[in-house]
Amino acid sequence: MQTISEKIIGNLPAPATGNKLHYFSGATLQGKKAPAGFAVRITAAGTRSFVLFHRTNGPIGRRWGAGTPTRRAERSRCATRS
């Protein structure tokens, strides 16, 4: 099982253009499981943000932003749980 850490998130490669999502569904962070749909979005400029994709009564997915690199990975995982 994959583990999420600030070092791993910091080492994720940025795409040449646009943005890319790196999913961490089911990964562990300090012994706790990340929720399904938890991802890190990275832009070509290198900006990283935490997002959570989920569905509400239908096939349309929604995205909720949990923070930017100034927030720690642990706080972002906790924010997606509420």
Short synopsis of the structure:
The chain has helices at residues 6-11, 73-81; strands spanning 19-23, 28-29, 32-33, 38-43, 48-55, 61-67. With 82 residues, the chain is of the alpha+beta class.
Structure description:
The chain has 82 residues and is of the alpha+beta class. It has a single domain, classed as 2-Layer Sandwich (Double Stranded RNA Binding Domain). It has helices at 6-11, 73-81, and strands at 19-23, 28-29, 32-33, 38-43, 48-55, 61-67. The chain is flat and about 35 Å long.
Strands of the widest sheet, in order across it, are 1-4-5-6
The CATH C-level name is: Alpha Beta
Task: Quote the CATH topology.
Answer: Double Stranded RNA Binding Domain
Query: How many separate domains?
Result: 1
Largest β sheet strand count, sense and barrel closure = 4 strands, antiparallel
Beta strand %: 35-45%
- Overall shape: it is flat
What radius of gyration results from the CA coordinates? 12 Å
Helix coverage percent of residues? 10-25%
Provide the structure class.
alpha+beta
Strand elements, count: 6
* CATH architecture designation: 2-Layer Sandwich
Layout of helices and strands:
Elements: H1 6-11, E1 19-23, E2 28-29, E3 32-33, E4 38-43, E5 48-55, E6 61-67, H2 73-81
Antiparallel strand pairs: 1-4, 2-3, 4-5, 5-6
